[in-house]
Specification:
With 155 residues, the chain is α+β, with helices and mostly antiparallel strands. The chain has six helices and four strands, in the order H-H-H-E-H-E-H-E-E-H.
């Protein structure tokens, strides 16, 4: 009896009682049949399914690394709408400017130990970032092309 109560408490804490309903709802939002054979899905659909799988667990924080890579336009649109519906915190790393401009409320740039925070993604933030990158590349190239030759080891 104690073991059953402990299991019930674990299910309650994990909010697992409605897990099947959450899976069904996500499949419906994906427009994917519940009996679809996963092995028959394309790479883009597999990525979309993996993204959906991460949502079914109802995370408080959703961490995404380059989430639009390898997605076609309809899948990117689907992901964008899912991100807009997400109730928790989203942290994403991306080079997708459209995604940033639609969703980002803050942007953090970490460069060689320095952190810069913009209150939202903007063209000014992008211009500042580009200028710093250009300056860094210029200095790196200058050091490379104007460096003293490395003396050869003499025996």
């Amino acid at each position: 009896e104690d073991q059953l109560a402990a299991l019930q408490e674990q299910l309650d804490n994990a909010e697992a009682w409605d897990f099947g309903a959450r899976v069904d709802a996500m499949l419906q939002r994906l427009e994917l049949a519940p009996d679809q054979i996963v092995g028959s899905l394309s790479g883009g659909w597999l990525k979309r399914l993996a993204i959906a799988q991460s949502l079914v667990g109802a995370p408080d924080i959703w961490l995404l690394d380059e989430p639009t890579n390898h997605l076609d336009i309809p899948a990117i649109d689907w992901l964008t709408s899912e991100l807009k519906l997400f109730k928790g915190t989203v942290i994403f790393i991306t080079h997708d400017r459209m995604l940033m401009s639609e969703l980002a409320t803050a942007m953090v740039d970490i460069d060689r130990g320095r952190v810069k925070l913009w209150s939202c993604f903007s063209n000014q933030a992008l211009a500042d970032l580009r200028a710093r990158c250009s300056e860094w590349l210029f200095r790196a190239r200058s050091r490379y092309y104007h460096a003293e030759p490395i003396p050869k080891h003499q025996s």
